[in-house]
Structure formats: C-alpha cells, structure tokens
C-alpha cells in the first residue's frame, strides 16, 4: 500500500522529490493550512442554507403555494441566508415522508393526512405514529362543497334524503368527507341513492339530470364548480353547518370551518358566501429542522399576510387566526416562537404546544 508521503507527492517533479522529505512535508503543511483558510472564508461556510418545499402537481394549488412562500423567503436572503426552492411532488403522503426522511425541509399536506401520519393511521398504519412530524401553519381551505340542482328542492343537507347524490369515487378523500357529513346529519347511505363517480364527472351528470346533487372537496375557485353553476340547469351551493357539524369538528381535529366565497360562482342561485367545513392544506416540517429556519418562514408569511393573500384566489379567506386551525401534529418550536411574539399563541390548541 502506498504511504501518505507517496500519495501526496504524485505529480511532483523529480527535482522536488529529491528535496529532503522534511522540507516537502513543511511545504505540504503550509499548503493545507492555506486550503483550510480559503474554505473557512468562502460562502460554503458562511451559514447559507438551502431548503426545499414539497408541493404537488404543477396545475394544482399546492405548487403555487410553495412558490409563493419560497419567493417571500428568497426576497429576504440577505437577512436570513436562506435560499428556498420548490419541488413538484405526488402530494401529501410523499411530502410528509419527505420531511421525515430529510429529503425535504417543508411540505404541503392535507390536514387529514397530517392527522393520520402523526397517529399512525392509513398509509402509516404499519410504520406506526410519526412522532417527529411537526405542524407549522394551515394555508387555504379545501371545502366540502355541496352542489344541488334547483329542481331537486334541496336547500339543506337534511333534504338529501331520497335524492340521487354523488358522494365520490372509491379510494378518494372526498368519499370519506361526504360520508362524515351525511353521518353528522343522521343520514345513512340507505336514505339516498348514492353514486360514486369521480368529482370531475359530477357537473355533467347534474346538468344532464342524472343526479340531484354532488359533494366535492376542493379549494376555491374551482373550474368544475364553475361548470356546474353555469349550465342549463340552475344550481345552488348548499351550506354545510349545524349542531351535527359542530360535533364532527370536535371529533375530528383535521376538519375546520370554511367559507366558500359567493363571488367565485355568480351564476349560482344563492348569492353571498356559503358556510361549510373542510380539510386544510397545511405546512409541515420535521421536529429536527432548525428552529431559525422555521421561525423565518413563519414570520415572513404572517408578517406579510395581506401580500401573500393576493398571490392566489384560494388565499382570499385567510386570517392569522384560521391559519392556526385544522392542525393535529405538535407545533414546531420555530413557529411557536413567532406565535408567542405575535400574540397568536391563544389561538393554538394547547394540546399542540410541546
């Protein structure tokens, strides 16, 4: 095996090799010291931090959400030394697993998925509770939206009895959302004629008179809802509210109250905003992510919320208070530091404060 001396003298001239070994070693030590000095003052060691935000498909709301947050952070690069980038991913499950493995620093995930991961349910039933998962804040709501034809006579969830209703395709998140709402009103599937087709097919079925109503869990504005409200058959957006819903909110912490802005659907029969509930898009991280990084991201979003809200129509209903709803994993210490400073700690469920 070559000695250290033989390795480091590879490529050195014959004349230099003939120097005393001690002389060569002295020069090498000087060279190594110089390298250490140079790298010690270069940007690599300046504290610059690169973070990646996992989002979703480029046509959805998650991707522009990550983009909006990254731009806010990058504008303050000189202050924080943080450079943020966005990655288009498969969505919630991928993002949660990514932040836990360290492949992502942040991720956007549905609030129900956050709950399931932290408690070891659904995709995490075999691996168990993901106790390193941390919540940062909620973003836009994805409302459980109930659209009905005017001729059906349905004006409340209770009126769905005896009607033909699309509740969502098997395996979809909205199928469970629909069942939860119906159950909250004491309606079982035998009380309606349930259809289970994809949400994108429902507007056409409603306009063709083949169904009376459909549920759709989605962020607003939404193109499919616009299609449903702009056809030959007049439709209304039905509120999802009442005592049963209040009980549902207490039972499942990943649900939260939402508002569907009426201005997005001017062709609907009912005018004005519509009350509902839904899951939320949430911002998550690992508990191992540096407190300073999470604090900086949280501070920039909340301190510039009015500017943030202008970046996408889905953000128009955001308030600092409702961005702390729908969370089920403990709040990251970096975010918690900001909430204490900003006087927002009172809006956080005490069970989520580590």
What is the structure about, briefly put?
By secondary structure, the protein is of the alpha/beta class. Helix content is 36%, strand content 19%.
Tell me what the structure shows.
With 354 residues, the protein is α/β, with parallel strands linked by helices. The protein has 3 domains: 4-44, no CATH class; 45-141 and 280-352, 3-Layer(aba) Sandwich (D-Maltodextrin-Binding Protein, domain 2), CATH 3.40.190; 142-279, Periplasmic binding protein-like II (D-Maltodextrin-Binding Protein, domain 2, 3-Layer(aba) Sandwich). Helix content is 36%, strand content 19%. The protein has 14 helices and 10 strands. It has helices spanning 4-8, 14-17, 21-41, 62-75, 77-80, 92-101, 111-118, 173-184, 202-207, 223-229, 243-251, 291-303, 305-309, 333-341; strands at 49-54, 82-87, 106-110, 133-149, 164-166, 193-195, 213-218, 235-238, 256-260, 274-286. Strands 1, 2, 3, 4, 5, 6, 7, 8, 9 and 10 form a 10-stranded mixed β-sheet that branches. α8 (173-184) links the parallel β5 and β6. Mean pLDDT is 87; it is low at 1-17 and 32-46.
Q: Topology, pairings included?
A:
Blueprint: H1 4-8, H2 14-17, H3 21-41, E1 49-54, H4 62-75, H5 77-80, E2 82-87, H6 92-101, E3 106-110, H7 111-118, E4 133-149, E5 164-166, H8 173-184, E6 193-195, H9 202-207, E7 213-218, H10 223-229, E8 235-238, H11 243-251, E9 256-260, E10 274-286, H12 291-303, H13 305-309, H14 333-341
Parallel strand pairs: 1-2, 1-3, 5-6, 5-7
Antiparallel strand pairs: 3-10, 4-7, 4-8, 4-10, 9-10
């Amino acid at each position: 095996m070559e000695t250290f001396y033989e390795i480091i003298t590879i490529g050195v001239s014959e004349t230099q090799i003939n120097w005393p070994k001690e002389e060569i070693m002295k020069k090498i030590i000087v060279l190594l010291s110089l390298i250490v000095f140079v790298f010690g003052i270069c940007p690599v060691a300046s504290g610059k931090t690169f973070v990646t935000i996992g989002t979703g498909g480029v046509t959805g709301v998650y991707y522009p959400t990550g983009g909006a947050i990254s731009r806010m952070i990058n504008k303050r690069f000189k202050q924080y030394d943080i450079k943020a980038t966005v990655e288009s991913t498969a969505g919630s499950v991928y993002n949660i697993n990514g932040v836990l493995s360290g492949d992502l620093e942040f991720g956007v995930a549905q609030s129900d998925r956050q709950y399931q991961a932290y408690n070891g349910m659904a995709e995490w039933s075999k691996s168990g509770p993901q106790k390193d998962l941390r919540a940062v804040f909620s973003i836009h709501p994805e409302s459980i939206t109930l659209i009905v034809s005017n001729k059906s006579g349905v004006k409340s969830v209770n009126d769905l009895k005896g009607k033909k209703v699309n509740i969502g395709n098997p395996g979809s998140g909205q199928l469970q959302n629909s069942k939860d709402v119906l159950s909250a009103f004491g309606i079982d599937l035998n009380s309606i004629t349930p259809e289970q087709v994809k949400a994108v097919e429902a507007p056409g079925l409603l306009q063709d008179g083949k169904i009376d109503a459909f549920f759709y869990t989605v962020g607003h504005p939404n193109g499919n809802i616009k299609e449903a409200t702009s056809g030959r058959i007049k439709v209304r957006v039905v509120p999802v509210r009442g005592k049963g819903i209040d009980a549902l909110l207490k039972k499942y912490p990943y649900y939260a109250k939402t508002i569907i802005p009426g201005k997005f659907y001017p062709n609907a029969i009912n005018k004005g905003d519509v009350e509902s509930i839904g899951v939320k898009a949430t911002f998550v991280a690992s508990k191992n992510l540096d407190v300073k990084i999470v604090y900086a991201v949280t501070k920039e979003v909340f301190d510039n919320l009015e500017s943030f809200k202008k970046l996408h129509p889905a953000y128009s209903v955001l308030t600092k208070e409702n961005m702390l709803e729908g969370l089920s994993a403990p709040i990251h210490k970096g975010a918690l530091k900001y909430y204490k400073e900003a006087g927002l700690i009172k809006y956080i469920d005490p069970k989520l404060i580590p």
